[in-house]
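debug: dumping io for the single-chain case to check the tokenizer round-trip. Nothing else runs in this session.
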Amino acid sequence: MSLDISSVKMSVDEKQQLADFDSCLFGFLKLGSTEETGKRSLLEKGIKSYENQIRESSKQTCDDGEEMDASVDPKVYCHLGHLLLLLEQYPKALSAYQRFYHLKQDHWKDAPFLYGLGLVYFHFNAYQLATRAFQQVLYLEPGFSRANEIHIRLGLMCKATNNYDASLKHFRQALNDSSECSFSKAQIRLHIAHLLEVQGKYKQAKEAYEQFLSSEGIEAPVKATALKQLGWLYHTTEQLGDKNSREGLAVYYLKESLDADNGNGQTWYLLGRCFATLGKVHDAFVSYRNSIDKSEASADTWCSIGVLYQQQNQPMDALQAYICAVQLDKSHTAAWTDLGVLYESCNQPKDALACYLKATRNKGGINSSLATKIKFLQQHLESVAVQHLQNKPRTLPSIEEAFALPIPAELTSRQGSIGPTPQHPMGKTGIMHSQASTQQHSPGNHGAMPGEEAHGKKKKGQKRPASEPLDLPPPPPQLTPQQMNLLHQLQQNQASLDPQQRQVLDNLRQQVLLQNQYQMKVQQQQKEGAFPLSQGDRMPPPFLPGGLLPPGQRTDSLNSMPSLSSVTLNHQGHIPGVMSVASSAQGGTLPLSSSSHHDSLDRIGDTATSDTEGLPKEIQKFVSDHLNDRDLNALFSSPKDYATSIAEDLLSQFTQSQNTSKSEVNSQQNVHSSQKEKSLSNSGDNSLPTSHASPSKLSSSVHSMNSQETSRTEPRIDPTKVEYSVKCDSENVNKLVISRNIPRSLTPPNAPFNISITMKGREVLAACKGYGKRGITTSLLGDKGPPRPPSPPYPPLAKENLNPPTPSVYLETKKDAFSTELQQYCYSQPVVVIRGLAGALKLDLGLFSTKSLVEANADHPVEVRTQKQQAPDENRDAYGNKLWRCDSSRGRTTIAKYAQYQASSFQESLREESERARGIHKDSDSDSNSSGGPKGKKKKTIKFGTNVDLSDEKKWKTQLQELSKLPAFTRVVSASNLLSHVGNTILGMNTVQLYMKVPGSRTPGHQENNNFCSININIGPGDCEWFGVPESYWGVIHNMCERNNINYLTGSWWPILEDLYEENVPVYRFIQKPGDLVWVGPGTIHWVQAVGWCNNIAWNVGPVNARQFQLALERYEWNKLQSYKSIVPMIHLSWNIARHINIAEPKLFEQIKSCLMRSLRQIRFTLDFIEEMGLEVKWHGRSENEAAHYCNDCEVEVFDLLFVVEQDKKFVVHCQECARKISTRMEGFVVLEQYQLAELCEIYDRFQLSHMSYFPLGTVPDVLQRTLCSKRITT
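debug: decoded output
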């Protein structure tokens, strides 16, 4: 960062004004307007002042080029970062924020800093780091003034990564927030409606769109988008009525959308699709043509045009349209498939096979019929019959020749306007550039990087005036008809050319290329207004070799399609915007010249760009000094555009509505994010993990609206690992250079409010009184930084110790099962398999067999997961590639129906085994949908019956009574089980759940809810294979999930064992046989696969010890940070433990007592806030077995004081912070109290350390256990 060495003096008044500027103003300042010129000048002056301070300090403390920053206040860096952020100088802002992070040990206390850092990461598409920073802001300060801005960005990022439930939650919280926001409520509601659509909730989505459209005061462009979505929803969703009525409504709403916004090319395209479905060919083609005229010449449009040509028996025109599609998107599955069908219909199977193979490159899944075609062609391509067809005169040029042919005029006329792929308008960039008016954001406007003007680069967003002289090279000589025929002949006989003929071919190709390039330049200059064309001035026709478009395939009838050469663009009065094109995986521009295709089919669409091209010098310096290619690709990769039904134009609507003016100095100095994305995205790395998304019904349409592959690569730079410091350059002390430093260890500050667990309850309340008037929310872990995943144990294990033997116990007698030694051994191990338990205790596990379950309750509901059957130690996609993501679809059935499936699967397996024994091999399977991967293996589709609730004591009395034979520490209900003291049912945790399995049924990797222990018994008759990792390694696996773009808490993942081995993670692996009980210790990561046909029963238990309670508390706070609901209410549970159990373990006692103390403190803070707001607290009390309460919006536990409001004729509970966001003055809220303070203080004071445990481990009589466990909380 080069600095101005001139001294800057600021007055006291200016310093006071400057102190009011921080990251919270981002998106709300209009620094580009003339009214805000003074503020902009003040910010720039402040930046220079801070930079001078840093430079002067560098001169004084420079030692061997390293700057220790001993005399620089860390707040200088923080405020400098804020000012740079407000001016949208993101790289410099990142450097300043990172320096503050390193210098300030308790940086996490500064919410505006974390918010600003999150905004910078969000700008660079660093979703994981941005999410982490935003989550910390909400965790530390739930009432943060820009919480709605954070929720919107979190919603956008979750939506971009297909985490739709979390996205919906964040958008709804933003919608309920009454604070000032850069997004309108209408835009947020549109996002919510779209999320319902992509989740497959079509009827709810339709109602949401209709409700949205019935609102008044909606901006026309936003209304047009909603109409477009609703129209396409009718076109694609069968549940919304019969086809004729649906298509009529689809056309109606799409036309209404065009009435509101006639310039939206995607709407024209969708209307063309509807007309094509109705058989209105001419209307469809007119719509497609309008789509191209509106700068929406996307791969989907050209593919659909190709289909129309093919239907009208115009194969050459169809060929050119498909070639246009795959040039725009080289992974467009539908275009490649349709092109293969075209070649196959023209008896050119070799070219058809090449296209089909290209269609499989898109890893969104292989169509079974396509796989069959590929297999057939590969087997019979060389047969005599196929060879005979190959020797016939060809109707179409080969695929290689087709790519060497010149480009149609429609494509070349748009090439000059091709820019970076517009971000999905319902995606992040709709608010990414939310610095309100500093820059004008339109599809064709990309701000210049610093220094571009000096190098003679004209800013792309500005049009050249018509009067400006234009320097064009002289036009190249055009090919004669004889040369065009020669070119065509040489291309057809390319394989047999001698060197001289090959040179002639290359020369002709080069000449065609020059002609195309010149034509594009002329058309681009005309488009920019350099020399307007009159009505009679038309661009030269496309360069077409003779015979390329057979005249016999042209007709003038209405039902006939015009050929490509007859489609011309209306240049009169129309300035096309940026063409919506799917970018390549590298994010670069698309190679549309013919010379880029003739060498190899595999090179179609490939691009190469410099790693640091277009980056500011500061970032280039940092890159060259410290980052390897992988790091750079990870940090600055720009995610691809989603092929979703929310159109690209909404993005420009949002940004244009917020950015209405832009000064010349601003455009030259600021870093415009859209250009930044273009230059940064050029460094995308295909080797990095990607996630594939097609998040709408539109994206699953026939002509591959799902063809675009979404790549979300996250940066490797973490503020906890990489820091920036200032170096003193001995040659030029006026420069600041970015360097790397090791962060200091963080030491938690002392807790405020001088309170301790030795104080009485009323003393705690008195010490905290008056501090919560402005609203404070605290943590159960104390006043320290937000929780974070742990580092792996040090030193790392040796490689030979990464496959440890699984702790196992074999029981022979009932005495062994009830021994204290067994209990203590289980408590000390991550996982234990107890063998022989059923025999030792004489358990009748047959009560849980499928037959018994059907006899007991045949119609009991079962959740079904549809999965692909694979080997237990691997997880592969359809192409044989190993991956972590483990997807499955959800359904519902009954025990009786699943029992039939389970039995038929077993019988089918016996039949196949018998046939194999007789030497008969079958390729198909009765219950499978197989697809051939590159290894030629089929994957059977299986159904896994999971989460069968057995909590009803009336329905399952016999089964539940049988489980009372188990040892106390493993029982569902036990006084020594913390979960028995919750006081209400938590399905699957303090109740039994059943799992019904066939071979291959998988329970993906996870930790149990709130890190509680779990019990799992295999009923049989088959085995299960288990994998387990100790709790201390969950941070490593969490980071590996992030690297694979999977959410650790909510995602479905199956670890790759080789990856765990490389990270030195030990893995227990063992077989669970029928009758075996598996004890899963607190926090142990595990994943399970059925080897045979079997049933399992499982539940959770909570040992009364310090390790279990601490891990449960840590996960409770981690869930709060991640906006994930903790189904175990730890505050509620802690008070119940204090009521019911005497604790003799000092550490556990301190943990529980501290939790109670912090709960009392929070109650006092909340009462202070209620008194400050002038609200009345009404007594409500608690009923017997009443469940703990959670906030309706953020889903955090709400204890004692409930903020209740009526919504949709229901009374719902909110936490204090969410209630404040809904209404700053709490209008409509009623505060209910469930416990008297005197009662809580009495419980708190009575809870003392016991000298002898009230419940010695494993020795409590059964009668006493049942008596105590039946106790419920009373008020």
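debug: round-trip ok. The chain has 45 helices and 21 strands.
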